[in-house]
């Protein structure tokens, strides 16, 4: 028996489109393997929505991805110009609301309102947008509990590399510290500086040309992105901190001579995010590390996290960014919710 | 509200004792953090059992650990000479049966019968004994499903490093291969050979002196242990193979000159376990790897696994053996079962 799960994708940039393609291409395999049909009933962005109660077929999902950003409302006959999330929900309430809007660490919007609206409407939530969790983790989880729905967010940290699941599976351990490389853009820039001996500005330009850095790279290079991830990690391990509590270096101030100096000492500079649990101290800092440290070998857009526990260190390494990687993580969360909400096949 | 979970520990060697100590020392913390009281109502080994319906207090658990192997039946007043698992269950049926008897890859006994008996009695099962799963994974899971109980086994691979959970959390991915260092004894021996340039026999003696290798090291050095772990991994990812399907090298045949040769070529010899999923080919082989490969830097009793998926590689590194590490993994499984079976606090 196949159960069908109604999905709404809110936000339709790189990640939203990657998810739509993934469902279009892999939906049939998933259905065979898990007995779950992933039925996208709505897609929305800031300027409108596409709604089809019976679910968009793979071909339609792929066509949507061909439309320019913010123009999906023109898709015929299902596009609705200016439709808000509220309007989408007045037509159809999905089983799973996927939030892939961009993060805003000041207001949390539009993600925060969207997620709360979904929860209050009885939809389960999967989010790749970090900001709502960073600002209102407890409130969101509290609301979800009261309403009896699930909120999953493994895509928010390390994209397709399941650090959040790993942390959740360490129940009996005392986690003493979590440290590592959790921002791909800055690790790419630093790797380029070390390997090609080019200044920060050139390395940034290269990263931007490849789509690894945003046109405005502030969230990454000023440490906000890594700090936000530390806040989510701190909540997962039950020792929450606030975004403002995280000390941050500004990578854009780095001088190539610092890299030379490190190389001369047989060391490597890395942008290390670190949370010392007992002290409740968190930071994102340019850090000189030894070449013997496994983190020194993590290059380019790879990420790595070392979890220090009372009995051993666990290191997880994997790609930390990318639309398709993030889409896979969302898909995993969607499937784990589907397992719970649908009757066993 | 605190819910109490009745636990039986079957097998009382190094791992069983580590678990008893862990519960004795950390039980109170766990109770505070998760609202679950871990109540050990029975401990059994091959020569008898200790049964206390109200649960053994921490002091009693620690005293039991001071008794020599196979002598717990002498513990007064709760020791019962010659009591079998059946007899234990005739007195009290635990919520969770923890199987930590030694593995036998021919018969699966005594673990296999114990686990099936527990399931049929309605107990959930946590096992660190690999053999029953390696020989009868499907049958065990089928029985558990019919009886409505859970079987967890994360301690069977990489001890305290949760590879099994990681694999289970990759639902949407196509796993193409799993490869790595999953036997600590042989990795320790090879590391010693590389670093101290000593022959196999000396490295083995050192490992034995430190308790890293067994007096009879065959299960480790002839690749059975790693092969058994590959079989469990293959079942977790839904592409099962049999133990006999795994090609194995015998590490005891290695000549120190092979190590010299590898060093000269700037390479490293590792005992690599590998499962290529599509080809259904599995092996445990002495493999020459490049120093650029992250697996080359995994030394001593550390383990590491690389999961190759259709979109990215994920590497997990951590201690792969040890009584206390294994006990932590068992504790995690126990807690995740407790979450499901006990009413939410």
Find the structural class of chain A using helix and strand composition: alpha/beta
CATH class of the largest domain in chain A: Alpha Beta
SSE succession of chain A? EHEEHEHEHEHEHEHHHHEHEEEEH
Strand content of chain A: 15-25%
* CATH fold field value of the largest domain in chain A: Rossmann fold
Shape verdict of chain A: globular
Low-confidence stretches of chain A: none
Radius of gyration of chain A: 21 Å
* Proportion of helical residues of chain A: 40-55%
How far apart are the termini of chain A?
5 Å
Main beta sheet of chain A: 7 strands, mixed
Fold blueprint:
2 copies of one chain form a homodimer.
Chain A: E1 3-10, H1 14-34, E2 36-45, E3 48-51, H2 58-66, E4 79-81, H3 85-91, E5 96-99, H4 111-120, E6 124-127, H5 131-147, E7 151-152, H6 163-168, E8 175-181, H7 184-196, H8 200-209, H9 218-221, H10 224-236, E9 246-248, H11 256-264, E10 267-276, E11 281-290, E12 302-309, E13 313-319, H12 323-341
Parallel strand pairs in A: 1-2, 1-5, 5-6, 6-7, 9-11
Antiparallel strand pairs in A: 2-3, 3-4, 8-10, 8-12, 10-11, 12-13
Helix pairs in contact in A: 1-2, 1-12, 4-5, 5-10, 7-8
Explain how this protein is built.
Two copies of one chain form a homodimer. The first copy, chain A, is an alpha/beta fold and 345 residues long. Chain A has two domains: 3-159 and 324-341, Rossmann fold (3-Layer(aba) Sandwich); 163-320, Dihydrodipicolinate Reductase, domain 2. The first copy, chain A, has twelve helices and 13 strands. The first copy, chain A, has helices at residues 14-34, 58-66, 85-91, 111-120, 131-147, 163-168, 184-196, 200-209, 218-221, 224-236, 256-264, 323-341, and strands at residues 3-10, 36-45, 48-51, 79-81, 96-99, 124-127, 151-152, 175-181, 246-248, 267-276, 281-290, 302-309, 313-319. In chain A, helix 5 (131-147) links the parallel strand 6 and strand 7. Chain A is globular and about 65 Å long. At the A-B interface, helix 1, strand 13 and helix 12 of A face helix 1, strand 13 and helix 12 of B. Strand 13 of chain A pairs antiparallel with strand 13 (313-319) of chain B.
């Amino acid at each position: 028996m196949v159960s069908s799960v109604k999905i709404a994708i809110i936000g339709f940039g790189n990640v939203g489109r990657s998810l739509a393609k993934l469902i279009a291409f892999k939906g049939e395999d998933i259905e065979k393997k898990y007995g779950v049909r992933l039925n996208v009933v709505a897609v929305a962005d800031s300027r409108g929505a596409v709604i089809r109660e019976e679910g968009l077929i793979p071909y339609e999902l792929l066509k949507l991805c061909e439309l320019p950003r913010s123009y999906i409302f023109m898709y015929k006959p299902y596009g609705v110009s200016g439709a808000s999330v509220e309007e989408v929900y007045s037509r159809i309430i999905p089983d799973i609301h996927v939030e892939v809007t961009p993060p805003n660490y000041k207001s949390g919007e539009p993600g925060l309102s969207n997620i709360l609206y979904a929860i209050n409407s009885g939809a389960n939530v999967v989010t790749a947008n970090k900001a709502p969790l960073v600002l209102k983790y407890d409130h969101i989880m509290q609301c979800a509990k009261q309403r009896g729905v699930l909120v999953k967010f493994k895509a928010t940290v390390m994209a397709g590399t399941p650090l959040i699941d790993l942390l959740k599976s360490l129940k009996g351990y005392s986690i003493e510290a979590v440290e590592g490389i959790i921002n791909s853009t800055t690790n790419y820039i630093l790797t380029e500086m070390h390997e090609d001996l080019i200044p920060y500005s050139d390395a940034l330009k290269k990263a931007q040309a490849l789509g690894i850095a945003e046109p405005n790279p502030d969230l990454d290079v000023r440490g906000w992105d890594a700090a936000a991830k530390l806040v989510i990690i701190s909540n997962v391990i039950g020792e929450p901190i606030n975004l403002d509590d995280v000390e941050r270096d500004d990578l854009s101030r780095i001088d190539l001579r610092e890299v030379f100096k490190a190389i001369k000492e047989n060391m490597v500079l890395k942008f290390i995010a670190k949370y010392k649990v007992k002290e409740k101290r968190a930071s994102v800092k340019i850090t000189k590390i030894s070449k013997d440290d496994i983190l020194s070998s993590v290059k380019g857009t790879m990420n790595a996290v070392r979890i220090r526990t009372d009995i051993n260190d666990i290191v997880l390494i994997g790609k930390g960014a990318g639309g398709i990687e993030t889409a896979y993580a969302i898909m995993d969360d969607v499937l784990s919710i589907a397992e719970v909400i649908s009757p066993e096949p």
